[in-house]
Structures are given as C-alpha cells and as structure tokens.
C-alpha cells in the first residue's frame, strides 16, 4: 500500500491517449448538418493531464502519437496546455491518432470515435521502462490504455515500476466497449488492475460491469476497498457519488449547471479531485471539488480547453453551496 501523502509532490505521470477532437460548430449543430468544425486536444488521459495543470499541478503524459499532422497537432496542444511530453513518442507507419467528432449538445449528443489501429495502443514495455518513476508523486491511468496490446502489458509493467518506487496508483475505470475484444476480457483485466491500485474512480455502469451485474456495482466498490484500495469513488451521475475509504463511506450530490454537452465531466472530476487531495484537502472536500469541476466543464465547449483554473474553481465553489444528495 503506497503512502497517499506522497501526492503533495503535485507532479503526476499520466498514461494514455492524446487525440484530436473535432466539434461541430456553432454549438448545438448536429454533425450531419455541420459545415465547419473547431479543433481541440482530446483523449481522456490528455484531458486529465490538462485538468491537473490548470489546478496548479505538474503533469507528464506517457503515450505514443502518430508521426503525421494529427500527431503533431496533439504535441503542439500538449505544449500549449503546459503538459510535459518528454515521454510521448511519435510512431511512424500505419497507426493513427485517436480522432473524435463531437457535438456540443446536451440532448442526443453524438460522439463518433475513430480508434482503428490507434497509435497509443502501440506503447511498449520499453517506453515505460525509460521513465524515472521516483520523480513523480503518483501514476494515473485510465482503463482505455488496457484495452489492447502491447499497451496493456506496458501499462502493467508501469504499475510494477511505480509501485517499486513507492508511487500511489490512481485508476479511472473509463470503460469504452468499442476498444475491447470482448466484455469478458475487459472485466478480467479491469479486476486485475483494480486489485493493484490505491485510488479507483468510476461510474455506476463501470463498477456494475466489473462486478458482472449492473446491480452489484456498489458491492464491487466496497470489495475493492477490502482488497487493498485506499479510496474508491463510485459516481452515480445526477445522483452524485458515494466515496469509500478506511474511515467509512459518505455520499455527495452534484452542483447544478446549465450543461452544453455531457463530455469531459469524468476527466475534469478526476483532475480536480486528485489536485484537491494533493493540496491536503479532506477527502469530502476533494470530492466536491471534483464535482464542481465536472459541472463547469459540461457547461463549456470542448474538454481539454474547458478545464477550469484554480481561481475559476475557487470562485465557483465560493458562489455555490455544497450540494445535497
């Protein structure tokens, strides 16, 4: 079990994809009706890294991108957002960067993801063994990185190296069925990853999937805590979240917002939540900080560029009462 006090170092290594998001413009336009699009950095891990940087932390991304114009776009955007890309390698040949074509719509929002032969899945054990894990406060990964080889084996090797260096392991379940060969494989791999991690965050559907039945998600969250996790956050959408730790469990609500779209909430939650813990906040306050960041991001266009700064999030929290369940 890693010491979560190490989070105060506020320097995080995030494993997983960076991609290009194309948003139908202006907001509210359906993809099939669009005649123009705006671009933004995307990909769950890149979004989390940006969220951490906006909250005053340092973040480095570990992944691969395609050696083409889209890959170079991602590299330039990581630079623009202040994310360290020393561990991002460009790969030549056929692998391509993840591409998402998205709508800014609160209702019936379409998000079309292109993940064929994805460049980030080409991350290797050699890539992760180049990293000096002792330089970081924690390792953060999303479940997407585990969906294919050689990325899966590389990620588990990174887990081993991070644990050997004393780093807490933080796991955002982030289950995307289209990336996996089968649900059975995904459930097995997620259970293996969850058993290794100190902080686990997911939604009710994801925990239910890991448990093998939609009604058993809460039981799975409690089981992960019993198996060694130190913090488990079970998100319930509009019903808020239930958080489990050695001190017990508590429920929190969500902040009211005028949502423009549903995307980006999970990534913003994780970034602000971990930044809160790194800043020494009590667990409940850190969860509420994550919930506030999620409410802010869904009310803005884009994901990475929508992540709030520390000052913006402080102002939001100061002007909104703590939500009830």
Structure description:
The protein is an alpha/beta fold. The chain has 10 helices and 13 strands. The protein has a 9-stranded mixed β-sheet, sandwiched between helices. Strand 9 (169-172), helix 5 and strand 10 (199-203) form a beta-alpha-beta unit. Helix 6 (204-211) crosses helix 7. It starts with 10 loop residues before the first strand and ends in a 7-residue tail after the last helix.
CATH homology superfamily: Ribokinase
Name of the CATH class: Alpha Beta
Low-confidence stretches are none
Given helix and strand content, the structural type is alpha/beta
CATH architecture: 3-Layer(aba) Sandwich
- Taken from the alpha-carbon principal axes, the silhouette is globular
Number of helices: 10
Number of strands: 13
Q: Can you write the helix and strand succession as a string? A: EEEHEHEEEHEHEHEHHEEEHHH
CATH topology: UDP-N-acetylmuramoyl-L-alanine:D-glutamate ligase
Helix content: 25-40%
Number of domains: 1
Distance between the termini: 31 Å
Name the strands of the widest sheet in spatial order.
5-4-1-8-9-10-11-12-13
Strand content: 15-25%
Q: Give a short account of the largest sheet.
A: 9 strands, mixed
Mean of residue pLDDT values: 95
What integer value in Å does the Rg equal?
Answer: 18 Å
């Amino acid at each position: 079990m890693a010491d979560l006090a190490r989070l105060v170092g506020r320097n995080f290594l995030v494993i997983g994809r960076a991609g290009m998001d194309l948003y139908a413009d202006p907001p509210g336009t359906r993809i099939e009706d669009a005649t123009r699009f705006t671009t933004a950095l995307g990909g769950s891990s890149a979004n989390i890294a940006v969220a951490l940087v906006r909250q005053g932390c340092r973040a480095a991304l570990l992944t691969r991108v395609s050696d083409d114009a889209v890959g170079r776009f991602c590299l330039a955007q990581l630079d623009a957002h202040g994310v360290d890309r020393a561990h991002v390698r460009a790969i030549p040949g056929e692998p391509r960067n993840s591409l998402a074509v998205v709508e800014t719509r609160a209702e019936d929002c379409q998000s079309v993801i292109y993940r064929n032969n994805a460049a980030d899945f080409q991350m290797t054990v050699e890539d992760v063994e180049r990293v000096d894990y002792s330089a970081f406060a924690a390792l953060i990964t999303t479940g997407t990185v585990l969906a294919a080889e050689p990325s899966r084996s590389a990620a588990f090797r990174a887990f081993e190296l991070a644990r050997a260096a004393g780093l807490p392991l933080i796991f955002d379940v982030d289950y995307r069925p289209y990336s996996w060969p089968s649900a059975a494989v995904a459930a097995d791999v997620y259970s293996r990853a969850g058993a290794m991690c100190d902080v686990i965050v997911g939604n009710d559907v994801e925990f239910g999937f890991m448990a093998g039945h939609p009604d058993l998600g809460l039981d799975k969250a409690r089981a992960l805590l019993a198996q060694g996790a130190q913090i488990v956050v079970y998100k319930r959408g509009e019903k808020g979240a239930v958080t489990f730790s050695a001190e017990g469990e508590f429920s929190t609500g969500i902040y009211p917002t005028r949502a423009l779209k549903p995307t980006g909430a999970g990534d913003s939650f994780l970034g602000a939540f971990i930044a809160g813990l790194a800043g020494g906040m009590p667990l409940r306050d850190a969860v509420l900080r994550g919930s506030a960041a999620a409410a802010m991001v869904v009310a803005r266009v884009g994901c990475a560029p929508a992540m709030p700064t520390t000052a913006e999030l402080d102002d939001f929290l100061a002007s909104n009462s703590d939500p009830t369940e």
